[in-house]
From TrEMBL:
InterPro entries: Glyco_trans_4-like_N. Pfam families: Glyco_trans_1_4, Glyco_transf_4. One of its GO terms (molecular function) is glycosyltransferase activity. It comes from Alcaligenes faecalis. This is Glycosyltransferase family 1 protein. Residues 23-172 form the Glycosyltransferase subfamily 4-like N-terminal domain.
Amino acid sequence: MSKTIVLIAHHAGSLLNFRGDWIRSLCTSGGRVICLAPDYSDQEKTAVRALGAEAIDYGLRRTGMNPLRDLWDTWTLSLLLRKLRPDVAFAFSTKPVIYGTLAAWLANVKRRVAMIEGVGFVFTDSAQPLGWRRRMLRFLVSLLYKSALQRADQVIFLNQDDRNEFVSRGLALKERTMVLGGIGVNLEAWRVAPSVRKPVTFLLAARLLREKGVLEYVEAAKQVLAVHPDVRFLLLGGLDSNPGALSKSDVQAWVNEGVLEWPGHVDIKPWMTQASVFVLPSWREGVPRSTQEAMAMGRPIITTDAPGCRETVVEGVNGYRVPIRDIQALKHAMLLFIENPGMIEPMGEASRRLAEERFDVNMVNARLSACVWNVDAAHER
């Protein structure tokens, strides 16, 4: 008899963009897969069904903390789960992990799995001292995480630092945790593209948030352009409602100054073919999918020595790691590629090899499936 798994997401697009290969794999193996999301379009429902899964809407506000609304959403989700009677509930992203796991517990779902893909704005260290509002938010979110994760049978982290932090804070029980090491990339879909040396072109693709290192990227670009005006800087990503978000006027000002090109929130792949080097000066990540995609396409990496970022670079082999918020170190790493363009191709080849060794989506999905179905021999804790 086949088993049923419910995937609880905060956004329909994330199911397709980040879980599509895994959903197809689960369906192919004979399981019944139900994908819950709060904002399905007809097109997205059709795409999920094409993978072999079922698409069902449920109520959840992606942002904000309204206790009464969140309690109601948790209760109604628990009723839906009771009706669906899955063997496994798998939740990812902050609010689904918290409220989805609690709802699955209320619904007596046999196995409850939560994935922490990054610690988020609340736990990421900022450049400024924590204000009282952020301290209070961190306290409240910690309580919610603890309440939910101690009712999870398995908690999956993408990097060891996040696991250590959640365990040390008492938010998760160590014996119920595992480190996946990245959600993986489809190496067939993301093939190596010819390296670009003229002009040397840097690409940052991320949500337009301060904690993604966008300001450091822009300041380093300004200093580089003062010496090498022919270098090209690309910025990909959409505007965001997060408290650390940059405004459209900020980004447009950089475009008007000639510092960078900003096509907005677009398909990254055509732009990656124009890039020499991929840059992500983030303050903290899970393990960034965009960097994995850049590696698969044979691009050297400049990133920070931060949790989740350091896992993507072997220093001096496929790129360079720089300290968080260090504009001068970031500029220096860029200059190494500008002044030594012969490094671009061999370092890009090294990136592809690392992607094949560490981030092959088939390998990652096999481990993820083994964890979800509790096949202990197939994964390491």
